[in-house]
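ingest -> validate -> predict -> emit
validate: passed (alphabet ok, no gaps, 103 aa)
predict: started
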Amino acid sequence: SPHSGRALSEAGFAGAPIVAYDFEWQSELIITGETGELVENNDVNGMADAVVKYLNNPDYAKRMGLNVRKAAMEMLDPVKLCEHEKNEYEKLFNRKQCIGAKK
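emit:
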């Protein structure tokens, strides 16, 4: 998952063991040793080493896949995301009303 955007979510939902660059929001889902392997952005050798780690440790790879699936389902739950988005818009609307009321 070098710079995958939405594909990172899909790989997480699939329970694939993920190696990702520390780029944009990737570190919000991928935590080394917990939900996958996160390597420094553009560290090609680090990415290769992390893939080899999975290949040499299939039980670890499977555990990371299960963990990232659980984390993705929690973090990216559509109902929770919708509620979060509604709450954020409501904060913005309320702030605008308060600013307008001060004038």
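The chain has a mean pLDDT of 89.
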